[in-house]
User: Fold these one by one.
Assistant:
Number 1:
Amino acid sequence: MHSHSQQSEGHVIDDPNTMNSDIDESQSDDSFEMEISDELRNFFAVSAKFKEERRKSQETKDLEDNSAHSGRKLKRSTAPPTERPGQRRLKEMQELYGEHAAMIHGMETALQLQFDRACDKKQPSHWPVIPLNV
């Protein structure tokens, strides 16, 4: 049995243990009180709506992928690529960095290689990704 009382900032939820009359005063100090503002309620509603839309979108995508690949094998193409590998990346680098694109591209490549070597050598474990389910 939860007791809800209105305040100017939002809602206060009291722990049901504080409502029992047979609890003495020393135990009532351990009560849990949490204020939930309207902004927090709105945040939770938007978050729940987003999660539901994302879940439905993922289910739809999975169904489309399964139906697209079911009943027929994927054909391998022997046709040559439509553009040179890396050409699009070079064009983007030119647009972003101008005459320094080649130097910056080389620096990025060297840094990526160092990172890959360190990962291969140290074999780091992945940091756990734990979702916040509120």
Note: Residues 51 and 130 are 15 Å apart (CA to CA).
Number 2:
Amino acid sequence: MACRKENKICFYLECGRTHVKQPLEHALQRWASSVSPLKFYRVKKFAQADIWISFLRGYHGDEFPFDGANGHVAHAFGPPDGRSILIRPKIGPLARGTTMGLDMETLGLREFGHALGLGHIEVQEAIMYPIINPTG
């Protein structure tokens, strides 16, 4: 059973690696502290979560495969579904905690916005702008 009550939202994070976990948890705390009354709690069981975060590649059961086309590296589904799906960070020339040059906190901040029900906006500097530029 999910724990969504008033301002409490539980999330399940499939990956426990520190270089992934910390920036994603920080992204959630940014939503909680700066723009909303929400409080996020990490749960250990998938079935308890309102939002779940998975790291997948290629086709993964929805109509939005991570195939590299158009640079798609993540997507999220808003309420009532509320699940976030992030592609696994690439290993190799990119820094740990990045995906195709995007840092995990920025990517998480944006995708959690979608999971909370926010859409894109046409303000280029905003986190919910349709395109995120890779970090320099």
Note: The CA atoms of residues 74 and 86 lie 4 Å apart.
Number 3:
Amino acid sequence: MVKVQPPSASILSLGSLLSAKVKFFLSESKLHVWRCGKAYPPGSLVTVVTLFLVESISTRIIVGEEEFRALEDASFVKTSGSGFVIVHDIVRARGGKMSDQEGNRITEPETLSECLKNEEKLKKLKGVLFNEEYGQPPIEITETHLNCMSDSLKLLAFKGSQIIFRQKCHKPFKQLRYLGIPSDVTDLPMEFAKLGRLTKYRGPLTQGMSMYELPPSLCSMHIIGSYENEVAYSKAPPRAAPASSLVKLFLYDMQRLPHGLEKLTKLQKLYLVQCKQLREIPSTLLNFNNLQVLRISECHELRELPSDFGQQGNLISLDLSGCSKLGVLPSSFEDLISLKKLKLKRCSSLQSLPSNFGQLKILEELNLGCCSKLEEWPTSFGDLQKMKKLVLVGCSSKLKETVPHNIRQNCSIIFD
């Protein structure tokens, strides 16, 4: 098999590759399943990759390890040590050409501008996804444009784009699965709560949006906190707030947390990242009985966790990295009986671990990197029989020298 060395490459996270957030995503051809070991020509390989990305708009399809290795062997993709997938430009170009030929996918501003002038093309359009460079003339999308697209559009995503929505469309977008809006947009061009098939949203909490009224199929939200609307921060919930299907919520750079989080009873993953003004964790975050992954990172004003934080008994992974003013962990930490991974790196004010820390019986990974004020281990630390990895980079010499003997013997320890 001939190896193709890419002159240049586009770096995509594996999550993006599998969740249809890349440019070649809208070929809907019915294709055969490819098998490992067969030397497909470039067109066939690209076609199959495109098919995976299309299907994953609504369903997350995991590419088998053997199949993925076959792509690597052909030098169409390769993985980096940091967990990224590098996709050859030939793959992108071929996939883009195929989708353009079908006339249902747009990734360039110029193509979108032309398409907006043709109602028939708009009616067939299934996806818009591109990053527009600043300095380009803004693109205006009117109610007429949105009405034409409303029946067929599955994916609408702009990042860093100069997009102007002139009017709001009141027709239901029955097929829309993924919606990505630039952080400077203050009002969505459609009624958010009525997007019946929407599964993923990325953008700000725009005017009128409320955590109490989310689309019924929405399972993932990535909120960028540049705009605050009155509805999202109103304490008064609607009389009959519908149940939410949301399982993943990412809040980035929020000045404050929106109301209604307590209604997200199915939430499994919660990320609070760079919420620089967050001083405390509200009690509503203790109501998530299904929460398995919690990340509260780079929240530099956070000083403590609630005393009953241990109520999160189903928590598997907890990341408090970069909470530089967090000085103590509550004694209820012992109740996190399902916890396997704990990151406390760069918690530079943390002076001690709870005395009952050894009650975390199935803890496997602990990262204390740059916790420079930690000087000693709790007496129960040696009870962590399942510990596999301990990171002590940037910690005090005393802490490194006094790691319990059984932990040293059975655990991989990173000192520097």
Note: The longest strand covers residues 9-13.
